[in-house]
Design goal:
- The chain is mainly alpha-helical and 111 residues long.
- Helix content is 57%, strand content 0%.
- The N and C termini lie far apart (34 Å).
Length: 111
């Protein structure tokens, strides 16, 4: 079981550069920091490090402007969820970008 889980997770994104190349150019620098920290938290969840992920999410929640950013950028965050973990809990949101898995199939739908 653990071996299968590890094999499945190895197909997902682990590098910030793969995500940052998909981001719109119009993103504010402060929002870029939100996105990078959100990516880091999702990566920790995918690695099974829930406590570290929780700390990152908690620090994001305390930062000024993150709640508004999260509410207005759900498609972007959903795409990151799917690209890193293969799933999202954001219902009724169409992910903002797509990323190819190593086998050529798509992880997300495009806007």
């Amino acid at each position: 079981m653990a071996e299968r889980l590890q094999k499945t997770k190895s197909c997902y994104i682990k590098s910030w550069s793969e995500i940052s190349s998909k981001l719109p150019d119009s993103i504010d620098a402060d929002y870029g920091n939100f996105i990078r920290d959100y990516f880091r938290a999702q990566l920790r969840l995918a690695q099974g490090k829930r406590v570290k992920a929780g700390r990152i999410f908690h620090s994001l929640d305390k930062r000024t402007g993150f709640a508004e950013f999260e509410a207005s950028n759900e498609p972007l965050l959903a795409a990151i969820d799917i690209a890193v973990r293969g799933e999202t809990k954001r219902t009724e949101v169409i992910p903002k970008f797509e990323i190819n898995k190593p086998d050529g199939s798509k992880l997300t739908d495009i806007e």
